[in-house]
Amino acid sequence: MTKNSMAKLSLSPNYLRVLKELGERIHFARKRRGMTLSDLAARMMSSSRTVQRLEKGDPGISLGVLMAALMSLGLERDIEKLAAVETDAIAVAHDRRRLLGRKRRRALTPEEAFFDEAG
Fold first, then answer.
1. Domain 3-81: CATH class, spelled out
2. Which of 19, 61, 103, 115 is most buried, with most CB under 10 Å away?
């Protein structure tokens, strides 16, 4: 089995949809700039086929390819918002519980419980 198919099998349909939507946003950004697939591929120093896979939301595309596309489209600052410390709600809740102490602990959400056990 190729890396592509393993990545697709490991992601839920919801996350595959999110990747597809990301690819569509990159596609629209390219089109709005009047760029062809070949134009973007040349700026990324990649192939048109790779750009097509990115725009389809292929989970086998590397982070380097995504970053090259964002840079080529002038959207590189957007990546800084992903997993930002300031917006990590689970970590903020964990820090709050730790700072307040264990006695005043409230019931955990399923996500907090998962990360509480893991960490």
1. mainly alpha
2. 61
